[in-house]
Design brief:
Blueprint (H helix, E strand, L loop, with lengths): L11 H13 L2 E4 L7 E4 L9
Antiparallel strand pairs: 1-2
Length: 50
């Protein structure tokens, strides 16, 4: 999946599962694919800050 620009060829449910797992780990997606894509690191819900 990492070798493609833009949205990789995959089942949409697989991409949504990957996104959900990353968000549960404290990653917030910001921007859009065309304008300023990136991430922010957050404290996962239910976990105290390290």
């Amino acid at each position: 999946m990492e070798q493609h620009d833009g949205v990789p060829p995959s089942r949409s449910s697989t991409l949504m599962d990957i996104r959900a797992a990353l968000e549960a780990a404290g990653i917030e997606f910001v921007g859009t694919p065309e304008d300023g894509p990136g991430i922010r690191l957050r404290t996962p819900q239910g976990r105290p800050p390290a």
